[in-house]
Amino acid sequence: MADGGDQGEELARLMAAAQDGDKRAYATLLQAVTPYLRAQARRYLRSSHDVEDVVQEILLTIHRVRHTYDPARPFLPWLVAIARRRVVDRLRGKGRRDSHEVVVSPDDETFTNAAANIPEEEADHSRLHAAVAALPPGQRLAVELLKFKDMSLKEASDLSGMSVGSLKVAAHRAYKALRVALTGSPGEDETRG
Questions:
Q1: Cα–Cα separations (whole angstroms), residue 84 to 27, 73, 77, 157
Q2: How far apart are CA 51 and CA 112, in angstroms?
Q3: pLDDT above 90 as % of the chain
Q4: pTM, 2 dp
């Protein structure tokens, strides 16, 4: 957008019409100034994400304060003042964040327990999946719906056609069978008489 008087006058006319409630003039104005605002923001900001965020902030500010524009005065200085304020706000915020944030890589984390500092190996779920596959069909379905698909009892009941009570019983029996299959131990509730 050139700084020409004709274009500035046209933008001033569009803004005055927008202030009078002309939605089409307002949309035309915003479309006309957006590339200019983007170019202004690029002068100060490197990240295209920051540029787009600042342009949106400028457009929102224009919308919020459009009633303050005086049609008897030039439009471009009013627009530039708003744009500069939003760019400065972004730069100040970015400076504050950058001065307080420290990037910490996982290698920099340490714990008092030495064993906790050793990266864990990827869990092997093959035994679990084999144990689930060996369950009776009703128990297997209960585990798959309630644990693997993280469904509520109501959702699992609707999908499986089993009552909520039947699902609870099947799941409980499945968990006991899986505990025995994976640990060899029946669990504390089985050892109590």
A1: 22, 19, 10, 59
A2: 43
A3: 49
A4: 0.48
